[in-house]
Amino acid sequence: MLPLFHLALAAPIALWQDSRRLELGMGVMRWILLLLAVFGIALAVSAKTPGLLGLGLLLGFGCLFLALFAFAAARIASTARPDATLLTDKDINALRASLRKPGAQGSTPPATN
Fold first, then answer.
1. Which 3 state secondary structure label does DSSP give 90?
2. Would you say the pTM of this structure is higher than 0.70?
């Protein structure tokens, strides 16, 4: 039974961890969160009982908070450079070696009186 349970969870976990490969794109989750936030606030506005009001406010503001971070993460990811373009340790050491040390030329600034 354990292998069947593991196989049943393998597909959703793979989709969750590697959402870049989805044909729908990465923006689906943030829009779902935004729709849930609108639903939660609409539920809170139309609630007749305090419990339903609290549930709607919790759902609305919680999903709105998560959607805010999802949109911010998508914005940051759209302008971020891939890791392949970053300098390696070898490149950084070569740049450090090529820089001139300050004051190595031996010239001193002129004295002013």
1. helix
2. no
Supply 28's token pair: 């689906």
- The dihedrals phi and psi of 48, each to the nearest 5 degrees, come to -105, -20
At residue 113, the 3 state secondary structure works out as coil
d(CA 62, CA 15): 23
Domain boundaries, the chain: 12-80
Q: Are 36 and 70 in contact (CB under 8 A)?
A: no
pLDDT tens digits in sequence order for the chain, 113 residues long: 445 555 555 555 555 554 444 445 557 899 999 999 999 999 999 999 999 999 999 999 999 999 999 999 988 888 887 777 788 888 888 888 888 666 555 556 666 76
What does the alpha-carbon distance between residue 29 and residue 23 come to, in Å, rounded to a whole number?
13
59 phi, psi to nearest 5 deg: -65, -45
